[in-house]
Design a protein that fits this description.
4 strands, 4-stranded antiparallel sheet, alpha+beta
Protein backbone atom coordinates (compact mmCIF):
# COMPACT_ATOMS: atom_id res chain seq x y z
CA UNK A 1 0.00 0.00 0.00
CA UNK A 2 2.85 2.39 0.85
CA UNK A 3 4.49 1.69 -2.49
CA UNK A 4 1.26 2.55 -4.29
CA UNK A 5 0.96 5.85 -2.41
CA UNK A 6 4.62 6.66 -3.04
CA UNK A 7 4.28 5.91 -6.77
CA UNK A 8 1.11 7.99 -6.99
CA UNK A 9 2.80 10.94 -5.28
CA UNK A 10 5.76 10.64 -7.67
CA UNK A 11 3.43 10.72 -10.68
CA UNK A 12 1.59 13.76 -9.33
CA UNK A 13 4.88 15.61 -8.73
CA UNK A 14 6.12 14.67 -12.20
CA UNK A 15 2.86 15.91 -13.75
CA UNK A 16 3.09 19.21 -11.89
CA UNK A 17 6.69 19.73 -13.02
CA UNK A 18 5.83 18.80 -16.63
CA UNK A 19 2.86 21.15 -16.73
CA UNK A 20 4.58 24.13 -15.18
CA UNK A 21 6.18 26.22 -17.92
CA UNK A 22 7.62 29.66 -18.34
CA UNK A 23 4.61 31.72 -19.41
CA UNK A 24 6.82 34.27 -21.18
CA UNK A 25 8.00 31.57 -23.56
CA UNK A 26 4.55 30.06 -24.02
CA UNK A 27 2.94 33.29 -25.13
CA UNK A 28 5.79 34.72 -27.22
CA UNK A 29 4.19 33.49 -30.46
CA UNK A 30 0.78 34.87 -29.48
CA UNK A 31 2.28 38.25 -28.57
CA UNK A 32 4.00 38.36 -31.96
CA UNK A 33 0.73 37.49 -33.72
CA UNK A 34 -1.05 40.25 -31.78
CA UNK A 35 1.64 42.75 -32.82
CA UNK A 36 1.12 41.80 -36.47
CA UNK A 37 -2.65 42.22 -36.19
CA UNK A 38 -2.13 45.53 -34.36
CA UNK A 39 -0.30 46.66 -37.49
CA UNK A 40 -3.56 46.15 -39.37
CA UNK A 41 -5.25 48.44 -36.85
CA UNK A 42 -2.69 51.12 -37.70
CA UNK A 43 -3.10 50.37 -41.43
CA UNK A 44 0.56 49.35 -41.71
CA UNK A 45 -0.04 46.72 -44.38
CA UNK A 46 3.63 46.38 -45.31
CA UNK A 47 4.50 45.64 -41.70
CA UNK A 48 1.77 43.01 -41.55
CA UNK A 49 3.12 41.32 -44.69
CA UNK A 50 6.65 41.41 -43.22
CA UNK A 51 5.30 39.26 -40.38
CA UNK A 52 4.53 36.41 -42.78
CA UNK A 53 6.87 33.45 -43.01
CA UNK A 54 8.20 33.80 -46.55
CA UNK A 55 11.53 33.46 -48.27
CA UNK A 56 13.79 36.47 -47.91
CA UNK A 57 13.15 37.51 -51.47
CA UNK A 58 9.80 37.25 -53.23
CA UNK A 59 8.72 38.98 -56.44
CA UNK A 60 7.62 42.56 -55.89
CA UNK A 61 4.34 41.86 -57.68
CA UNK A 62 3.52 39.09 -55.18
CA UNK A 63 4.40 41.31 -52.20
CA UNK A 64 2.13 44.04 -53.64
CA UNK A 65 -0.71 41.51 -53.94
CA UNK A 66 -0.28 40.51 -50.28
CA UNK A 67 -0.32 44.17 -49.22
CA UNK A 68 -3.41 44.82 -51.36
CA UNK A 69 -5.15 41.78 -49.82
CA UNK A 70 -4.47 43.10 -46.30
CA UNK A 71 -5.75 46.54 -47.34
CA UNK A 72 -8.93 45.01 -48.85
CA UNK A 73 -9.52 42.91 -45.71
CA UNK A 74 -9.34 45.99 -43.48
CA UNK A 75 -11.59 47.90 -45.90
CA UNK A 76 -14.23 45.14 -45.88
CA UNK A 77 -14.10 44.84 -42.11
CA UNK A 78 -14.51 48.60 -41.90
CA UNK A 79 -17.67 48.50 -44.01
CA UNK A 80 -19.22 45.33 -42.59
CA UNK A 81 -18.21 45.53 -38.92
CA UNK A 82 -17.15 49.14 -38.38
CA UNK A 83 -13.48 48.19 -38.31
CA UNK A 84 -11.27 46.37 -35.84
CA UNK A 85 -11.41 47.99 -32.42
CA UNK A 86 -9.02 45.76 -30.49
CA UNK A 87 -7.00 42.54 -30.68
CA UNK A 88 -6.48 40.41 -27.56
CA UNK A 89 -4.43 37.30 -26.86
CA UNK A 90 -6.61 34.42 -25.66
CA UNK A 91 -4.21 31.48 -25.61
CA UNK A 92 -1.17 29.96 -27.24
CA UNK A 93 -0.43 26.30 -27.84
CA UNK A 94 3.20 25.53 -28.68
CA UNK A 95 4.62 22.34 -30.09
CA UNK A 96 7.03 20.40 -27.92
CA UNK A 97 10.13 21.74 -29.71
CA UNK A 98 8.82 25.34 -29.44
CA UNK A 99 9.35 25.92 -33.19
CA UNK A 100 5.70 26.33 -34.10
CA UNK A 101 2.57 27.38 -32.29
CA UNK A 102 -1.09 28.21 -32.68
CA UNK A 103 -1.90 31.66 -31.36
CA UNK A 104 -5.53 32.23 -30.40
CA UNK A 105 -6.55 35.86 -30.80
CA UNK A 106 -9.84 37.58 -30.08
CA UNK A 107 -10.68 40.30 -32.58
CA UNK A 108 -13.13 42.88 -31.27
CA UNK A 109 -14.97 44.82 -33.98
CA UNK A 110 -16.54 48.26 -33.89
CA UNK A 111 -20.07 46.84 -34.09
CA UNK A 112 -19.49 44.94 -30.79
CA UNK A 113 -19.04 41.55 -32.44
CA UNK A 114 -16.12 39.37 -31.42
CA UNK A 115 -14.36 36.71 -33.41
CA UNK A 116 -11.71 34.27 -32.23
CA UNK A 117 -9.08 33.36 -34.81
CA UNK A 118 -6.25 30.87 -34.78
CA UNK A 119 -2.99 32.17 -36.21
CA UNK A 120 -0.47 29.43 -37.02
CA UNK A 121 3.01 30.67 -36.13
CA UNK A 122 6.51 29.42 -36.88
CA UNK A 123 9.78 30.40 -35.22
CA UNK A 124 12.66 31.26 -37.50
CA UNK A 125 15.81 32.17 -35.62
CA UNK A 126 14.64 34.12 -32.60
CA UNK A 127 11.57 35.66 -34.25
CA UNK A 128 7.99 34.39 -34.68
CA UNK A 129 6.27 34.67 -38.05
CA UNK A 130 2.76 33.93 -39.29
CA UNK A 131 2.46 30.81 -41.45
Amino acid sequence: MRKLITITICFVIAAIIACSRDKKTDFAAAKAAKEYYDLLLREDYNGFVEGMNMPERIPDSYREQLVDNARMFVGEVGQERQGIREVRVVNCVNDSAMLSANAFLMICFGDSTIEEVVVPMVKRGKKWYMK
